[in-house]
Design a protein that fits this description.
Length: 221
């Protein structure tokens, strides 16, 4: 029996993570947060004090990464046995992730790690190239976006709730430069798959987005 895959791609702050998690739970499918793989690599690189210009060093660190996901109440990510969950969400981690994500060989090394998430009864995968590169044959594809201002505002609230003190202007400019890097890179740039449903969440509630995504999947698949 083929394993169904639902991909949700889009820029940071569009609500992909929240929507994907809830949709996966609703469907009873596995969930791949592909950004967390690039973020884990960013953390591994900083632990090893790697030189971001040294591709060979980055590749060997990427190859040696042993990632384990434990689902308690929250998702816990372990890198080589160490809990790195707290560092995963920081802006620095996201920025370094997006720098190394532009290196084609890095994407190649991380490709299989992502494909391995496809297991019965199904998978919801979120990222930038889930529907275009990693799971091009996915049964259901969504491209989820929102205005840059709205995304910055959401990200700001998220960080403040976590007790991380940030400046809205700085967040806006970081979001813009990360988007630009993700869209302009030559390998697997952020782009809407031809067969993806486009959703602009700027003026929508999370529940409305979830309902629209779920409406793609026929009942009782
Ligand atoms: O989605 P998240 O903000 O966690 O992703 C962090 C960075 O990882 C992105 O800015 C992007 O550069 C990279 N990424 C990617 N491909 C994916 C997921 C994330 O290049 N599928």
């Amino acid at each position: 029996i083929p394993i169904p895959v639902l991909t949700i791609d889009g820029p940071s702050g569009a609500g992909k993570g929240t929507v994907s998690r809830i949709v996966a739970k609703e469907l009873g499918w596995h969930y791949l947060d592909s950004g967390s793989i690039y973020r884990s690599l960013a953390i591994a690189l900083s632990q090893k004090e790697a030189d971001l210009a040294n591709v060979d060093q980055i590749l060997s660190i990427a190859q040696a990464m042993d990632l384990a996901y434990e689902c308690d109440d929250e998702l816990i990510v372990k890198l080589n046995g160490e809990d790195i969950t707290a560092q995963l969400g920081t802006e620095t981690t996201g920025n370094v992730a997006s720098i190394v994500a532009a290196i084609p060989e890095v994407r190649q090394v991380l490709l299989q790690k992502q494909k391995d998430f496809k297991k019965p009864p199904g998978l919801v995968a979120d990222g930038r190239d889930m529907g275009t590169v990693v799971f091009p044959d996915a049964d259901f594809k969504v491209f989820l976006t929102a205005s840059a201002a709205k995304r910055a505002e959401r990200r700001y609230k998220q960080l403040m709730e976590k007790g991380i003190d940030v400046n809205i202007h700085q967040i806006t400019s970081e979001i813009e430069s990360r988007d630009c890097r993700d869209k302009e890179r030559l390998t697997a740039p952020l782009a809407q798959a031809e067969d993806a449903l486009f959703i602009d969440s700027s003026a929508m509630t999370i529940d409305a987005v979830i309902a629209q995504v779920l409406s793609l999947v026929p009942q009782r698949l």
